[in-house]
Amino acid sequence: MHRTGELYGHFETLDQQKESASLGMWIFLITEVMFFGGIFLAYTVNRHANPVAFALGSNTLDLRLGAINTGVLLASSFTMAMAVWAGHVGKQKLITLFLILTLLLGGIFLGIKGVEYAAKFEHHLVPGSSFHIPAEDVSAAAAKADPYFAAHAQLFFSLYFGMTGLHALHMVVGAGLLIWLILQSRKGRFTAKYNTPVEMVGLYWHFVDIVWIYLFPLLYLIDRHK
User: What span, in angstroms and rounded, lies between the C-alpha atoms of 195 and 176?
Assistant: First the structure.
């Protein structure tokens, strides 16, 4: 395989190359949907089976931080979309600017999530031998309704860390891709005729943001203050 400018040897035109890249990205995203879909199903089934413990678990999450992170990701989707637009119209400086803004917003999201994780460790809400929910947070009615309350509460936090951790991992991958795009953009690689990498990373970034749009209500909002 060889390259002629931005065209790889086995493609005849840039449009054909872009169509192939788009098909590959959409196939990848479909596999990601199935992957996260299985996790969401596991969470939904267990939440339905253990509503009391899961409701209390949701109430221990910081709704304010979760809402802020939702706003941050929505803003990052906007800046990513603007980077794609700048690529389509060939505005190289704007491509770099919007990619940097997207990266900064992604970093803010991960920083806030780190604060949330630290609070869970501080309050012994991490599944394991040190897991502990203060007795005052567990009403007598809740304990009576669910004799295995502590175990089911650990299940909630296991799913919480698993789901948000996988999402954060995808964010880290996305941040790495953004750094690569920024470096390439500063070299003037992307033009109105060739901006496929920006668009493909944009699709990935929007998918990761959509996953959080589902995670936020599932983890933070359902049965709030029940």
Answer: 18
Q: What is the pLDDT of residue 81?
A: 97
- pLDDT, tens only, 155-214: 999 999 999 999 999 999 999 999 999 999 999 888 888 889 999 999 999 999 999 999
Tokens, residue 30: 């479909």
Q: Which residues pair with 8 in a beta bridge?
A: 3
CATH class of 3-221: mainly alpha
Q: Give the separation between CA 60 and CA 50, rounded to whole angstroms.
A: 16
pLDDT in tens, 41-70: 999 999 998 888 888 888 889 999 999 999
The pTM of this model reads: 0.88
Q: Of 182, 181, 176, 167, whose CA–CA distance to 110 is shortest? A: 167
- Domain regions of the chain by residue span: 3-221
Find where tokens 């596991």 sit: 42
pLDDT on residue 2? 46
Closest alpha carbon to 180 in 160, 202, 197:
197
Contacts of 103 (CB under 8 A, 6+ apart): 175, 178, 179, 182
Residues 182 and 167: their CA atoms lie apart, in Å, by 22
Structure tokens at 25: 């990205």
